[in-house]
Predict the structure.
Amino acid sequence: MDVALRQAAEAAKGFMPPEEGLALHAAAAELPGGGLICEIGTYCGKSTLYLAAAARLVGAAVVTVDHHRGSEENQSGWEYHDTTLVDPRTGRLDTLPTLRTTLEAAGVEDVVTVVVGRSEIVGRWWSTPIDLLFLDGGHTEKQAQADYEAWARHVRPGGRLVIHDVFPDPADGGQAPYHVLLRAVRDGFSEMSRTGSLRVLRRLF
């Protein structure tokens, strides 16, 4: 991975450990030239930079989708709430300005397109086949399943589905991404690799 982009990714706000970020990058770097990478759940752009670095290598494009109001665990009173991301005018979380700064500073705006909106709504009108789909949006059962339903059908046969925060043991974390993994396997995805909580699958048909 490009050294400067790796340093930028590791320094960016977010929750992805470096080894998982590198595994995400490696999965995207295997794509055919000119492919499309779609990320659901941008936050402040940490994982986006790993994907952007891979896109540069293979001539792909990255589209990242988020409403930028934060997931449930990012809200006030929850464990992952960051007061520096609260808009003082509205009192609401707004990660979009930080994302803009992250992408601009890293110089990846030429390969990353930001879509601001709820993933399940954007997914209704989306029509372009996806070569790699990275699911890392809301982690409630309802939202995780909604993200999968809206986007997994767009992954082309042979394409990749990457799911973050997969914890089979409830003692390690929430179960929603794990349930999405089980559903994906039933739907024709085959698991290829595991790195920490990151799972890489391939669509068989």
